[in-house]
Amino acid sequence: MLKTCQDLRITFAPLAGLLLLGAAATQLSGCVVRAGVAVPAPPPPPAYVAPAPPPAAEPAAEADLQASEPPPPLPQYEQPPCPVEGYLWTPGYWAWAPGGYYWVPGTWVAPPRVGLLWTPGYWAFVGGVYAFHAGYWGPHVGFYGGVAYGYGYTGVGFAGGRWVGNSFAYNRTVTNVNVTVVHNTYNETVINNNVTVNRVSYNGGAGGVAAMPTAQERMAAHEQHVAPTFEQHQHVQQAAANPALLARNNGGRPTIAATPRPAAFNEPGVMRAHGAGASPAHAGQPNAGQPAPGHGQPNAGHPYPGQPNAAHPNAGQPNGVHPQPYAGAHPQNANGKPPAAKPHPKTPPENGKREPETAQR
Description:
By secondary structure, the chain is of the alpha+beta class. Helix content is 16%, strand content 15%. The strands form 6 sheets. A 4-stranded mixed beta sheet has the order 1-9-8-14, with no helix packed on it. It is globular.
């Protein structure tokens, strides 16, 4: 019997293996069935969206500027001498604040890096309002409304200087440079293409400059631009906080029209405005992009260049010297000399006889 049981174990062993294999097959077949069922795919990981780059920093006073009235005419002022070789000129303009238009003085500025030029901001009449397009730095000067800001900005492009390698060369014909400070200069005549020289400070609309971007200016609009520098921001903010620069307070003639450096409103070299509007005597002067005699002098280009506030003969002369001293003041001495003093006669005595002079003791 015992032997038989052992044989049975041996006999049933293969059968047990077959049963195990069958169970395994059943389990495997179950896996295949489950694999055939549509299982929802796991959700994809959240896609990383890079944050949008911050907008180009603009001065708070220049953000989305709109006005219902046109800006005043550009004031007339002299350009201060370039204080540091490598600085570039940025012309003044009218900005807008709740109190109305205020003047942002023209100034010399260090560019953000070598090779960049400044495109001035400008006002344009669009959609029934006057909108301001902020200025920017770029490899080429773009469209600035055709506004003739002067000192190289004739309305199209910039003729006040150019980059030569890593150095900036200044055109002395239209920019005020001191050759003892600035050595890289040249002289090149600038032709103003504007038929009418005026002080209009905006593009489009009634009385505005009728100018459209050129092909070169359209190309410049698609180039990489650099926002105004921190010093330029400070310059605008300080101008916005100065009541004397409001047009309603200065009548369009700001006392701080141009500065040698950004925000240097109280330093030597500040230029004040001496007029606004067009006049034949000032047609083609530096602010219109043309050279003028006596360049760099106070009120240079006037009939009496170099004299303070020399708007007409004998006006604002430093020492009261007239073109013809005293001429016409004394008809008997029309040669320009004052009349000679005559001795005052003594009163005769009552008896009609002259009394002898008493010697002084």
